[in-house]
Amino acid sequence: MIKHKKAQWPWHGLTALVLVGLAVALFYATSLISYEWRWNRVPQYFAYQAEDVQRAAGNGTVEAVDAQGKMARVTLKDEDGDQQVLSVAQDSVRVSQGDDVSEGDPVGVTRHWAAGPLAWGLWATVWISVVSGVIGLFIGLVAGLCRLSSNPTLRDLSTVYVELVRGTPLLVQLFIFYFFIGTVLNLSREFAGVAALSLFTGAYVAEIVRAGVQSIARGQGEAARSLGLSAGQSMRHVILPQAFKRVLPPLAGQFISLVKDTSLVSVISITELTKSGREAITTSFSTFEIWFCVAALYLLINLPLSHLASRLERRLAQSD
């Protein structure tokens, strides 16, 4: 019998219809509160043209103002006869030939593109996530293996660490690191934030590693030992590579959660993406637009990470 594959397009069409319905519902909800959308205010929070004021270095006169396209070349001559040449935007020139100027008087401005607060907030979120993730992975690997150790001290200490961190909120841990440990050891807020996120992530990674190693059949380690490998070599070359394939999905999920958890470091005055969004709202009064952009930026980080983890998982599955 020939099995006919069911058409999938009706279900995709239903998905599109649901999404359109949600968009219409959102638009209707905002119309009920008479919200005025101002998307034109958003781009400046990603990139804008910054202005640097050019000032006279001393008392003197304006010797010449020469237009050069969109720029102007302003030549100043001080009381000692020394010349100062400034290149400023043509539409910003504030002096004319023959004018007297004093030290510090503005002559014009130069413009250049600069990153806005949302761009800087995105960068802060990315580097905090990467650094905390790498350190947390190392801590979790060590703590996870310690939980499987035959040494009671290592096993007990790792258990206390995991249960203590997993049993308390990350927000409380951030406050403890910043206001107590950070004050005593004179740590910066960035160091305190990364340390708290690393230890928090490491506790969950430790449980993932422990579960992954325990899921490998005991015979794998016994076979490796019979081939002359030591316990450390057996773990490093036989057990951990197999366990990594099994723990990749929960590890990816943990790191995606870490990216979102970085929003909590704003409570200790680290200007990451969420704090940048709040600051942008106070100046733009575009509440919905900014929060939608912030959510989209978090998706911009997490969706590629999730896709990469899925591809790596499929590749590792094919190598079995």
UniProtKB/TrEMBL annotation:
Residues of the ABC transmembrane type-1 domain: 122-309
Keywords associated with the record: Amino-acid transport, Cell membrane, Membrane, Transmembrane, Transmembrane helix, Transport
Key word S-adenosyl-L-methionine present: no
SUPFAM superfamilies tied to this protein: MetI-like (SSF161098)
GO biological process, one term: amino acid transport
One term under GO cellular component: ATP-binding cassette (ABC) transporter complex
Subcellular compartments: Cell inner membrane; Cell membrane
Listed InterPro entries: AA_ABC_transptr_permease_3TM, ArtM/GltK/GlnP/TcyL/YhdX-like, MetI-like, MetI-like_sf
Keyword Transmembrane helix attributed: yes
Membrane topology type: Multi-pass membrane protein
Pfam families: BPD_transp_1
Family (UniProt): Belongs to the binding-protein-dependent transport system permease family. HisMQ subfamily.
Protein purpose: Part of the binding-protein-dependent transport system for glutamine; probably responsible for the translocation of the substrate across the membrane.
Protein's recorded name: Putative glutamine transport system permease protein GlnP
Lineage, uppermost ranks: Bacteria, Pseudomonadati, Pseudomonadota, Gammaproteobacteria, Pseudomonadales
